[in-house]
Specification:
The structure holds two protein chains of two kinds.
Chain A (H helix, E strand, L loop, with lengths): L2 E4 L1 H8 L6 E3 L5 H5 L7 E6 L12 E6 L3 H9 L6 E5 L8 E9 L2 E7 L14 E5 L5 H8 L3 H13 L2 E12 L2 E4 L2 E6 L23 H12 L3 E6 L6 E6 L1 H13 L8 E6 L4 H17 L6 E8 L5 H21 L3 E7 L3 H14 L3 E5 L5 H10 L2
Parallel strand pairs in A: 13-15, 15-16, 16-17
Antiparallel strand pairs in A: 1-11, 2-5, 3-4, 3-5, 6-7, 6-9, 7-8, 9-10, 9-11, 12-14
Helix pairs in contact in A: 6-8, 7-11, 8-9, 9-10
Chain B lengths: L3 H6 L4 E4 L3 H13 L7 E5 L5 E6 L2 E8 L7 H4 L4 E4 L6 H11 L5 E4 L6 H14 L2 E3 L5 E4 L3 E3 L7 H6 L8 E5 L2 H13 L4 E6 L10 H10 L5 E7 L4 H10 L7 E6 L26 H11 L2 E2 L3 H10 L11 H8 L11 E4 L2 E4 L2 E2 H6 L3 H10 L6 H13 L8 H11 L4 H9 L9 H15 L3 H10 L19 H10 L6 H16 L7 H15 L5 H9 L5 H21 L15
Parallel strand pairs in B: 1-2, 1-5, 2-4, 5-6, 6-7, 10-11, 10-12, 12-13, 13-14
Antiparallel strand pairs in B: 3-4, 8-9, 8-11, 15-16, 16-17
The chains are: A alpha+beta, B alpha/beta.
Chain lengths: 387, 594
């Protein structure tokens, strides 16, 4: 469904036989790992979070002596990172830097190569040689044109196909002593293929972006266990407007409407559930959103339960889950004077909306409950008026 | 490439791959409410039972289910024009390619699953292009042509939704979007403002939809009934860039009303993932702002907010349509209830008992007992005289085989223990199995396999010999090739009235080989009955090999022995009651202690 980055450690382990890089995770015993290093050479210490432009941001530390490695890790940790990679440092001439990337496009795999690689590559788009490869036989001509070793290109291409990569970038690719060495790799996989790659990579290899709240982690677990889809993105967790939205498109429309009315900064979260989850799954999702709502320090809080006219998501069933979660914290929500605004349509909407209306009224949480006859923007307009 | 006019005018016969009952029922409701005389969905290719139950109006109907592509009936193979694939994301590609290759009459179909790998989508894209067929999706709620065809969840899964959106009457507005929810939202917005859709297509939120947005727009341009195109887009990707080019080059001339969502992302330096898989702007051109400007420049009417988008839709000229009431249909739907059992052979309603749709008395007066047995066992009102005669002979032949055999022994022992008639009969019946009386079905299974796979008889025998298995239907304790079984001779005489005798010939070819190994490995009564029954069913009743396989799976071929021998067991029970010998106990010297 989506392209996901994997760690540089995993991408390199898959590409390079006997890869020597050492990964540091929050569980690693750093002194034990450092003891594996030698004092006859120096090292590179870099973050491994799928972050772009690491060099420019100072997130790659070069030429580090063994004993200085723990300090280097601490330096990077202080910037908020938790996962690192230690590799032998290679001294080379900047003119030896090349750029190579592969990307899946509609009619094949687009390969980009530049004879001058490095961190300035984006400033020199004219130096790129681009070609879309439709079959492996076409690689030889590209290798000839660029001077790349045919076997290296072949290996990368095969890896790309077998591992269901979507994007693969080596920058710089260093041509040193007649050999091509991949120094930094960025790699995106197609996460829909996780069950097809025989554990060569898995969801465990998706880099940890930022520290997550307990609630977000709960939603992540729910995601992996359900056939329906759930997403949750924290925006301003101390904001006023919490959203429980359904549908990929409708959820952006509702977020847009809040933003258009000038309340963008009040958006606590973005996210959506869709694909007909059952009542239990909807309950778990809602429960976690509500926990975050109760923790927000905003003085006036609202909850928007919004969605379009669902095609196959059962409104009565999903609302049963939502009401279950609401009922557990209804007292606290009342104390905090939270009001709830609902706009939704779809299979069994009459039953679902009526239940929701009754529940919110009985618990003194009612903002408004509307069906599909109320245009999407109207519910947002009604809601922001109360903030 | 998708051609809307063709899709409207072609007969709509749909196969579902995998099943999603709520969506399939909604597709059937759509047909019913559109005034069609039967459901478009003709077959489901899925695991599970031989049929699934749905409602046509108020009545329950059965939609047949097949488990393999090669089991699709010949009659349907050319008729099926559309498919809707509900398989999982992982299985979608393989099942789609399989169906595209198997059904020559297919025009195209829709893919429901999310999480289809990009590589798989592109493989389907290349294949569909090569074959000239269309595929909507993956991750799509499908394609909707009012009154003609609803391929997927699009428009809703609840009849009330379909009615309130009135997706039965054709109008002038095409609704296009990647987003399923917004597609439906906009279909409703069109209806609420007194217009109707000409068609709607949701290409799905994946990175590589098989039917590209460009193709969908060109289809709308080409469609004579579409006057206006309504489009909902999101930030991310380059679809709108392609669209703008089509407009600038004059390939698209119809008015386009659109809204590109995602201005909320402007708040962030590095925006989080909004919406669908591809909704992440990677450059300025991919932001909502960038896309809006580009489309506006190309001549589209671009809304700045959803509110404005709705007013634009409202301002479009209204379509001509009839005010229809669906209250009666809704009443029918509301009174639906599922039957507890399904029967195809008999009924007893309003005091009239019927067998196979005929009054009981008239049915039985016209037929011999064997004829009734054949009709009821097969569920067919009429059967051939050859089958009736043969079954009559078999029923007489199998009636009893002396008190020594297992079943009769058990009946006798039970009767002598003082039990009643039913208990004694049942204790005999419970003995019937692979070693006693139950070999006819096994023999039929073997012969069917051998004949349909075209396996050489020698190889067939060898495959059993090499695994040290007996061949059901072959071998007798007493009779040998030089001392033939007179009963088998009498059975074989029925074969002379047949033409091809595929199964009997095969059975005889097997016998020829086995008797060379050992004289008593002759075709026995079980084998002969199985072979001739198969031949009669095939030649006189016109059963296909697939249908014969279904009979084998239901143990049909054992039914005649069970029925006939029940007479023998009952006779033994009654005999014992007359004789009245008291309880049976085995003498010690007839037990071997080890």
């Amino acid at each position: 469904m989506a392209r996901k980055k994997i760690t540089e450690f995993r991408a390199k382990s898959l590409l390079i036989p006997n890869y020597q890089g050492i990964r540091i995770t929050p569980d690693s015993d750093i002194s034990k790992e450092v003891a594996k290093l030698q004092d006859t050479q120096t090292y590179v210490v870099k973050i491994d979070h799928g972050v772009k432009k690491r060099m420019k941001q100072g997130l790659i530390l070069l030429d580090i002596k063994r004993d200085a490695v723990p300090d280097a890790i601490e330096t990077l940790k202080a910037k908020g990172y938790t996962n690192f990679l230690i590799e032998p440092f290679l001294r080379y001439n900047p003119t030896e830097e090349r750029y190579l990337s592969l990307q899946r496009v509609r009619d094949g795999i687009m390969i980009l190569y530049a004879p001058q690689g490095g961190i300035e590559i984006e400033d020199r788009p004219e130096s790129l040689i681009a070609e879309t490869i439709h079959a492996p036989q076409e690689l030889a001509a590209f290798a000839e044109k660029t001077g790349l070793t045919p076997s290296l290109l072949q290996t990368i291409y095969e890896e790309f196909e077998e591992n269901y990569y979507a994007f693969f970038e080596i920058n710089p690719l260093v041509l040193h002593d007649g050999k091509f060495l991949p120094l930094d790799i960025a790699c995106e996989v197609d996460d829909a293929a996780e069950l097809l790659v025989h554990h060569r990579w898995s969801a465990d290899d998706f880099p940890i972006m930022t520290a997550k709240t307990e609630e977000e982690e709960n939603i992540d677990i729910l995601k992996t266990k359900s056939a329906a889809s759930f997403s949750f993105v924290p925006l301003n967790l101390n904001g006023s407007i919490f959203m429980l939205l359904s549908g990929g498109g409708v959820s952006i429309v509702l977020a847009d409407e809040v933003y258009n009315l000038g309340y963008g900064k009040e958006l606590a979260n973005y996210g959506e559930y869709s694909g007909n989850p059952n009542a239990e799954e909807t309950y778990l999702y809602t429960k976690n959103v509500l926990q975050l709502l109760l923790k927000s320090t905003a003085t006036k809080k609202v909850l928007l339960i919004g969605g379009g006219v669902a095609n196959f998501t059962d409104i009565a069933k999903t609302f049963t889950g939502v009401i279950h979660a609401l009922s557990e914290v209804a007292d606290q929500m009342q104390q905090q004077h939270v009001t709830v605004f609902v706009r939704r349509g779809g299979p069994n909407q009459a039953e679902g909306l009526a239940k929701m209306h009754n529940f919110l009224q009985e618990n003194n949480l009612l903002g408004a409950v509307c069906g599909p006859d109320t245009p999407l923007p109207d519910i947002v307009a009604q809601m922001v008026k109360t903030i | 490439m998708i051609d809307i006019q063709t899709l409207r005018n072609t007969p709509h016969t749909i196969i579902a791959i995998g099943t999603y009952p709520a969506i399939i029922q909604a597709m059937i409701d759509f047909d019913f409410l559109s005034g069609k005389d039967k459901p478009s969905i003709a077959l489901i290719l899925a695991e599970g039972r031989n049929h699934e139950r749905y409602f046509w109006g108020k009545e329950e109907i059965l939609i047949p289910v097949v488990h393999e592509v090669h089991s699709i009936p010949d009659s349907l193979q050319k008729q099926i024009t559309f498919f809707v694939n509900f398989s999982s994301g992982r299985r979608t590609k393989d099942t789609t390619l399989e169906i595209l290759d198997a059904l020559p009459g297919l025009i195209g179909g829709a893919l429901f699953a999310e999480k289809v790998p990009e590589k798989h989508s592109l493989r389907m894209y290349a294949h569909a292009k090569k074959l000239g067929k269309f595929i909507v999706g993956p991750a799509s709620i499908g394609l909707l042509l009012p009154g003609s065809v609803k391929l997927g969840a699009i428009g809703g899964t609840d009849a009330r939704q379909l009615i309130s959106a009135d997706v039965f009457q054709r109008g002038s507005v095409a609704v296009l979007s990647a987003s399923g929810g917004m597609t439906n939202e906009l279909i409703n917005a069109v209806t609420r403002s007194n217009k109707r859709i000409s068609f709607s297509l949701a290409f799905g939120g994946e990175r590589f939809p098989v039917t590209t947005p460009t193709e969908a727009f060109l289809a709308a341009e080409k469609d004579l009934e579409t006057k206006t195109i309504i489009y909902f887009g999101e930030l991310g990707g380059s679809d709108e860039y392609d669209l703008a080019q089509l407009m600038q080059s004059g390939s698209i001339t119809k008015p386009i009303l659109c809204y590109i969502a995602g201005s909320v992302a402007e708040m962030f330096d590095t925006p989080p993932q909004f919406g669908h898989a591809k909704a992440l702007a990677q450059s300025k051109d991919e932001t909502a702002r960038g896309k809006r400007d580009m489309l506006e420049k190309a001549g589209a009417q671009v809304a700045e907010s959803f509110t404005e988008f709705l007013s634009m839709i409202n301002a479009l000229p209204v379509d001509q349509f009839e005010e229809k009431s669906y209250a009666h249909a809704l009443q029918l739907f509301a009174s639906r209830h599922e039957a507890l059992i399904t029967s195809s052979i008999s009924g007893d309603a309003n005091g009239v008992t019927g067998l196979l749709h005929e009054d009981l008395l008239s049915f039985v007066q016209k037929r011999s007992f064997a004829g009734i047995v054949c009709s009821l066992f097969l569920g067919r009102n009429e059967v051939s005289p050859e089958l009736e005669e043969f079954v009559d002979f078999v029923l007489r032949l199998l009636v009893d085989h002396g008190p020594n055999v297992s079943g009769a022994m058990n009946t006798i022992v039970t009767a002598r223990a003082g039990r009643d008639i039913v208990s004694s009969l049942v204790s005999g019946l419970l003995t019937i199995g692979p070693r006693f009386g139950g070999a006819i079905n096994q023999a039929a299974e073997n012969l069917l396999l051998g004949v349909t796979t075209g396996q050489d008889a020698a190889d067939f025998v060898e495959s059993f010999a090499s695994t040290r298995q007996y061949i059901a239907g072959i071998g007798h304790k007493k009779y040998r090739s030089d001392l033939p079984d007179p009963r088998v001779k009498a059975l074989k005489a029925f074969g002379e009235k047949l033409e091809q005798k595929r199964f009997l010939q095969y059975a005889l070819a097997i016998e020829k080989i086995t008797t060379q190994k050992k004289g008593n490995l002759i075709l026995n009564v079980d084998g002969a009955i199985a072979a001739i029954l198969l031949d009669i069913l095939s030649e006189k009743e016109h059963y296909s090999d697939q249908e014969l396989q279904t009979l084998v799976e239901s143990e049909f071929f054992n039914a005649f022995f069970i029925l006939s021998r029940s007479v023998g067991f009952l006779a033994h029970f009654l005999d014992q009651k007359r004789i009245d010998e008291g309880i049976f106990r085995l003498p010690d010297d007839l037990i071997l202690h080890i």
